[in-house]
Amino acid sequence: MSLPVETAHPEIYHYTTRAGLEGILKNQSLWATNYRHLNDATEIILFKDRLKDILVPTAREIFSALVFDGKAKPGDFDTFGGFEKAAAHEAVNFVESCFRTLNDEIYVTSFCGTSQDEYVRRHGLLSQWRGYGAGGGFCLEFNTRRLIDLLRQEAQRFEHLGGHISGVIY
């Protein structure tokens, strides 16, 4: 099982241009881009697959509670090939349903995680500097735990589902 993102990456970094930094400071906010307009839209597809795996333990807990409360019997899951396959099936259905409901209205703000490489920790990622450094780029550092808390507060304040910070593995 992988570590929570805030444990694996206590700080995350957002590379941006001068104009991007000016917008962030002026508006006191980070903007998100619809995933279809990213230079690598596969990030959402990778996250979708990972989200299914993340939700299996939750489905497993729900099914266990149903059995424990007497609202289901272990044999009720045989149609799906057993308890574990039923949990995986429900996680897949839930994620697919969410993506259909969102109708491609998925927005992304990209960050880079903390590197184990000392040179990268001190100087940043060359690939990001190449993309954002022309004409003077910036690397903004964020406390991951604090950013997650701010996303939760914003979701409560504006009554929406909120954001999620997750690692992407290429």
Describe the structure in your own words.
With 170 residues, the chain is mainly α. It is 52% helix and 9% strand. Strands 1-4 form a two-stranded antiparallel ribbon. A two-stranded antiparallel ribbon has the order 2-3. Helix 3 crosses helix 4. 8% of the residues are buried. The model has no long low-confidence stretch (mean pLDDT 86).
Strand and helix layout:
Elements: H1 5-8, E1 11-16, H2 18-27, E2 33-34, H3 42-68, H4 83-102, E3 107-108, H5 118-123, H6 126-132, E4 138-143, H7 144-158
Antiparallel strand pairs: 1-4, 2-3
Number of helices: 7
Can you count the beta strands?
A: 4
Structural class: mainly alpha
Strand content: 5-15%
* Major β-sheet strand ordering: 1-4
**Computed Rg:** 20 Å
State the major sheet.
2 strands, antiparallel
Question: Which sequence of SSEs, written as H and E, runs from N to C?
Answer: HEHEHHEHHEH
| Envelope shape | elongated
Share of residues in helices:
40-55%
Unreliable spans are none
Q: How confident is the prediction overall: mean pLDDT?
A: 86
Distance between the termini: 18 Å
List keywords for this structure.
170 residues, mainly alpha, two-stranded antiparallel ribbon, two-stranded antiparallel sheet, 7 helices, elongated
What is shown here, in short?
By secondary structure, the protein is mainly alpha-helical. The chain is built from seven helices and four strands, in the order αβαβααβααβα. The radius of gyration is 20 Å and the shape is elongated.
